Amino acid sequence: GENVEQHPSTLSVQEGDSAVIKCTYSDSASNYFPWYKQELGKRPQLIIDIRSNVGEKKDQRIAVTLNKTAKHFSLHITETQPEDSAVYFCAASTGGNQFYFGTGTSLTVIP
Amino acid sequence: DTGVSQNPRHKITKRGQNVTFRCDPISEHNRLYWYRQTLGQGPEFLTYFQNEAQLEKSRLLSDRFSAERPKGSFSTLEIQRTEQGDSAMYLCASSYLPGERGYTFGSGTRLTVV
Predict the structure, then answer these.
(1) What are B79-95's pLDDT values in tens digits?
(2) What burial letters (b/e) apply to B73-89, b meaning 16+ CB within 10 Å?
(3) Which of B31, B43, B100 has the CB atom closest to A101's CB atom?
(4) CA distances for A9 relative to A87, B9, B74, B91, B93, angstroms
C-alpha cells in the first residue's frame, strides 16, 4: 500500500516568516494530495489540495507544489500568523476513497 | 448544522466492554468513511461506505470491529470486547464524490479504555 512520510514533525517560525512542510509518497498511482489543518481538539479541515495533473496551486498565503517524478509534495505558508499554529497533515490517494496520511507537523508561529 | 456530526464526543469504558459510536454525515454525501487517529499520528483508514454498501475494510478493522450504514444515511461503529489499544480518536468523514475536495471530517469520538 501507499506510504506517506512527512517532515518535519515540529516546526517553529517567527510571525511573518514562511513555513514549509514536505511529504513523500511511495505509490506512483497516487493522484490526489490534500492537506489538512487540525487545531487542538478539533476536526481536521481541508486547507488546500492538488491533483497529479497540476504542479502547483496557490490560495492566498498557502501554496502546494507537487513533483510527480520525485514523488514529493510540499505545503508553503507565507507571512505566517499566530492563528496558523496547528498540526498539518498531508495525505495521498489513488482513487479518492482511502486517504493515506502523513504523521503530521506541529507548527508553532511565535508572535 | 450541515457538518458531519459524531456522538458521543467522549467515551470512557472498561476493558472488555462493548462500545458503539454514531456518525451522521452531510445529508447529500453518499460516501462515508471511518478513520482512527492515535496521539501524534495521522488518521488511519478503517472502512468506507457508498450508500449502504461497505466497499472497503482495512486490515486494522479486526473481527472485534463492525460498521454499519443500514439506510445509507448515518453509520455506527461498534467495538466489542474493548482493549486498551483501542483507545484513540475515531473520526468519521463524508464526501459526495470520491476525492472531490477531500473529505469533510466530523469532530470525532475520543475513546478511552481503562
Answers:
(1) 999 999 999 999 999 98
(2) ebbebebeebeeebbbb
(3) B43
(4) 9, 27, 35, 22, 24
Q: What's the pLDDT at A96?
A: 63
Q: What is the pLDDT of residue B98?
A: 62
CB atoms A44 and B101 under 8 Å:
no
Residues B4-16: tens digit of each pLDDT: 999 999 999 999 9
Which of B1, B2, B45 has the highest number of chain A CBs within 10 A, making it the mutation to test binding with A?
A: B45
Range with lowest mean pLDDT among A60-64, A69-73, B90-94, B96-100? B96-100
Pick from B74, B71, B68, B67: nearest CA to B24:
B74
Name the residue of chain B whose CA is nearest to A97's CA.
Answer: B98
Closest partner residue to B42 among A93, A98, A102, by Cβ?
A: A102
Torsion sign across C-alpha atoms A33, A95, B27, B111 = negative
Residues A75, A77, A83, CA angle at the centre, nearest 5°? 120
